[in-house]
């Protein structure tokens, strides 16, 4: 996968990735973003999540949604502020929308006790407690193709913006968010993106 960003748009092998523009964004970054925030959609398909984020009623967006098969959808230019972080703080910064790029991974997150999604579908899962507390429960696994695409996209973002840290929504808003959760190997992902 050969991703690059030109004028705020992600290209794959020279052609723009699928665009599903969201109106739920603010103007240009006042300072270059230095954080990459990882999320899960808590839903079904990546396409469905991107369509929801394109709805003004959603009141939220992200720069990218990455489907389980690795397909990448761009919703907001990486030159503009997406509404993905909400009330948040990290490393002395507040309102991380103004300092970060948001990537949503299509993933249900926590599952029902029987290992099925809210839609009743059986999926691969791990059993774990969240690092911020709570019960041991089942969490949907992130497929390898999705993680590979996310890493490639993140490296393209880090080549375009001075990204110095990758965090989860559960890091910047620990009292209210669980994503990307224990099924996401944050340490391994950080190393793949930033070499740390």
Short description:
This protein is α/β, with parallel strands linked by helices and 196 residues long.
Main features:
196 residues, alpha/beta, six-stranded mixed β-sheet, three-stranded antiparallel β-sheet
Biggest sheet, spatial arrangement of strands: 4-8-7-12-6-15
Largest sheet: 6 strands, mixed
Strand content: 25-35%
Rg computed from alpha carbons, rounded to a whole number of angstroms: 16 Å
Task: Let me know the number of strands.
Answer: 15
Overall form: globular
Q: What share of residues is helical? A: 10-25%
First-residue to last-residue Cα separation: 22 Å
Report the mean per-residue pLDDT as an integer. Answer: 97
**What class would the helix/strand composition place it in?**
alpha/beta
- The number of helical runs is 4
Low-confidence stretches: none
| Topology order in helix (H) and strand (E) letters | EEEEEEHEEEEEEEEHEHH
